């Protein structure tokens, strides 16, 4: 088998159908089917169950997919080691980031980094912390920007704190919040817990949640339309100038804040390109709020 076969197998292992894999790998579906049949002939057994919903690996297929994932990782490690030996800032770097970091921080950050190191090829994956942490543990990404403090045995660096705000189309009184419509959005459990604890210490009544949406941007638009209030972080409000806001504070009057940390996989610090990226972030200081 070749590298492209390993990539193909891992994508099928992710649950993607023939059409999706064909589009991502820029090969025709007949050519893809031919490669699958050829691999099965090499192993002398069927690896996939064909059905109306596409391919599904059987027991043997799952084992071969694990082999493909291992071979791709070994190849990636070998390439990175070779580049590290020559001290070249070159090659792929896999970055995980929360949606807000990817939207408000990474574009400008990567643009500046690539002007210094144009031969680097960044790959960015976004999602919530559990998903990104799993990628990091399994070394499918080199670094991850996570908006929470986790126990971690490898590279870990504090980046910044950001205040959590009560946001509304017009000024509201804190004591009236249980009676007012609240807009919720999907976010990390750590932020949800932080706000839930604050609420339980501030009110005897549950919140009047009238809408729950997928992300902070949609939530912001609904608040802008005057349909309710929301709790949003400083980063999500970085480009918002018109809405009324007030920082949430604890019983001591201190602002309620959310932390952002940078994490590195077990082997990330051994690669020259990743080290250059980590050094760049420290020198750039883009996370100072």
UniProtKB/TrEMBL annotation:
Residues 1-58 form the HTH lysR-type domain. InterPro entries: LysR_HTH_N, LysR_subst-bd, WH-like_DNA-bd_sf, WH_DNA-bd_sf. Keywords: DNA-binding, Transcription, Transcription regulation. It comes from the Bacteria. Belongs to the LysR transcriptional regulatory family. This is LysR family transcriptional regulator. It comes from Sporosarcina quadrami. The lineage of its organism: Bacteria, Bacillati, Bacillota, Bacilli, Bacillales.
